[in-house]
Design brief:
mainly alpha
């Protein structure tokens, strides 16, 4: 094949073509003039039929190739039309059931289809362009010395106004909400007063984190849209996990066994739900759903709170993957983390629970709505409280970007392999949780027996670990704004059990013991927030072990030095979520969630 030269004269090619046409015979020219198909008259009939078949075949293969080329688009368009028809039908026929959740599902699906072909970076760049041309001009108009105090004062005024509104609140409820506000302030002051480097505290991170935490709670607890969205998520999670019992466990035993009183046993009612949820999480990881969600959330908090990329990524992944697994996402960076980053990674693990834990609590009967809300609030809370307790004084490697995430396991071959791996992992996790609960609850019973024996010599009857913890954590329950009508001691006992033992035992007592069922709806909702975290002594050893293994024991000393501080910051992060919930709740609004 001759090469194409851009210097060739097109007129020379035209003259050659003209000369070639003049060589046609008069007979061929006549045939061409009389009929478009005259040229075929001299072709044998067999060749004509063969050519016709080849022509038809070529058209058929061309159509198939075009169809294959646009197959994904056609599938997406078909699914989009089905979703749109479903949404419109729901608006017309089921308007009384609410429009928010169906609209958001349709909008999310539409946006996802758009971003298949339009890079999301373009949208983010447009948003960033608008931001850079508006907000910095407003901020620069404020004198530098007044920016941080002004932001802090504005945040405090906002919280005070919310605590005192509406005006028709009963006196006791108003006082309880003000106490919740005071408790929130005490948490912040305590961490600042004991801060490792008070002069290096970045107040932008703290203020933005508290505002983000407050806005999430306000959206969920005080708006109809937020209530509808999180109620939908809670109902979805509850009904999804119920299939593990009603279908899976019923197959292994019988319908009558599951439906009977024996079906409420922890071994039957809770552990299968955990196994099912872990399998679903593995499937979502295989499809890339969790990575996509975590990545978007991490970008938001990285940009908004001015933390390192590693910190934002681990904090965003902790409510999904839990302590340890979230740190494995930055495995290659763990040996080079600063002390403040180690503190932040551990704090995020202590401040929230994993998806597996969430499934267990829901299976126990805990309302999923405040649990999901608490997990969302824990992301900015952990970032803010950790940076207040242990500010950054070194140069972080991921200060200006995100590290490449790394999975600790090989990618499954297909979705069936992912489900199989998740099922096996879920069984192991459920077995570990069951064994830990068996041992811990037995040890508590032994300790209570010893305390009772010792207390009788001093005339203290019914001396138990719960009684001791109730008195120790009584001030914490008070400053959470718990109703002062007999609920304080009950809440303090549960918080003490969560910190000293673990949150599973606390939630189990909370749901099954009639002693705790007598609490008011507001107190029950506050304690649901307060218990939603891995901040306990046993988790301390887990985090030290996991992080030490990820960095090949090279940074074990640094990890151990910041571990106790991170535990305190993580527990306080969870308590700030409970304080903000108490700040926003009345007895009437709390009753909707219980």
């Amino acid at each position: 094949m001759s090469s194409f030269d851009i210097n060739d004269d097109p007129s020379s090619h035209a003259s050659e073509k003209h000369g070639y046409l003049q060589k046609q015979t008069a007979e061929e020219a006549t045939v061409n003039e009389t009929s478009d198909f005259g040229a075929l008259s001299k072709v044998p009939s067999d060749n004509i039929q063969e050519g016709t078949v080849m022509l038809e075949g070529s058209h058929r293969w061309y159509g198939v190739s075009v169809l294959n080329q646009h197959r994904n688009r056609l599938i997406f368009v078909g699914i989009y039309l089905v979703f749109t028809a479903w949404w419109i039908f729901g608006l017309v026929e089921h308007r009384d059931r609410g429009w928010v959740v169906p609209f958001l599902i349709w909008l999310s699906f539409t946006a996802r289809l758009i971003f298949f072909y339009l890079p999301s970076s373009r949208v983010l760049q447009a948003a960033q362009l608008v931001w850079l041309h508006t907000v910095p001009h407003i901020v620069n108009a404020i004198p530098p010395k007044l920016r941080t105090p002004g932001a802090g004062a504005g945040t405090a005024i906002t919280l005070i106004v919310v605590a005192l509104s509406p005006s028709n609140l009963a006196k006791d409820e108003r006082i309880d909400r003000v106490i919740s506000l005071i408790g929130l302030g005490l948490c912040i002051f305590l961490l600042w007063a004991t801060s490792k480097h008070r002069a290096h505290v970045v107040w932008h991170t703290v203020i933005v984190g508290m505002l983000a935490q407050f806005i999430i709670a306000l959206f969920v607890l005080r708006t109809g849209v937020g209530f509808s969205i999180f109620n939908f998520l809670a109902t979805l999670a509850r009904e999804l996990l119920a299939y593990a019992k009603s279908a899976g466990m019923a197959f292994l035993t019988s319908d009558s066994f599951v439906a009977g009183p024996d079906g409420n046993f922890y071994l039957v009612g809770v552990l299968p739900c955990i196994a099912l949820f872990v399998a679903i999480v593995h499937l979502l990881i295989y499809w890339g759903t969790i990575q996509w969600v975590v990545g978007k959330v991490a970008v938001l908090f990285f940009w908004m709170m001015k933390v390192s990329g590693a910190e934002a990524l681990v904090a965003s992944a902790s409510p999904f993957l839990g302590q340890g697994e979230s740190a494995a996402l930055i495995k290659q960076l763990v040996p080079y983390l600063t002390k403040a980053e180690f503190h932040q990674v551990m704090c995020s693990g202590f401040a929230t629970v994993s998806g597996n834990g969430l499934a267990g609590y829901i299976a126990l009967g805990v309302n999923a709505q405040p649990l999901i809300c608490s997990c969302a609030m824990s992301i900015p809370a952990a970032l803010a409280m950790s940076k207040l307790r242990y500010p950054e004084t070194e140069q972080a490697l991921a200060q200006h970007g995100f590290p490449a995430t790394q999975s600790s396991e090989e990618r499954p071959a297909n979705f069936l392999h992912a489900v199989s791996q998740g099922s096996w992992q879920g069984i192991k996790i459920a077995a570990i949780i069951g064994a830990n609960l068996l041992v811990v609850i037995s040890l508590i019973a032994i300790l209570n027996g010893l305390l009772g024996w010792w207390g009788r010599y001093w005339g203290i009857h019914h001396l138990t670990l719960e009684l001791v913890l109730g008195y120790i954590f009584y001030p914490i329950a008070f400053f959470l704004g718990v109703s002062r009508n007999g609920d304080l001691f009950r809440v303090s006992q549960l918080i003490g059990t969560k910190v000293i033992v673990n949150e599973y035992v606390a939630y189990s007592d909370f749901q099954t013991d009639p002693y705790y069922q007598a609490m008011s709806a507001r107190s029950r909702l506050i304690v649901t927030f307060a218990l939603c975290g891995f901040g306990n002594i046993s988790s301390l050893g887990i985090q030290i072990g996991v992080l030490s293994q990820l960095c090949n024991d090279k940074r074990t000393k640094d990890i151990s030095r910041v571990a106790l501080s991170a535990l305190v910051a993580g527990v306080i992060s969870t308590l700030t979520s409970a304080s903000i919930a108490g700040l926003l709740l009345t007895e009437e609004t709390a009753a909707k969630y219980m």
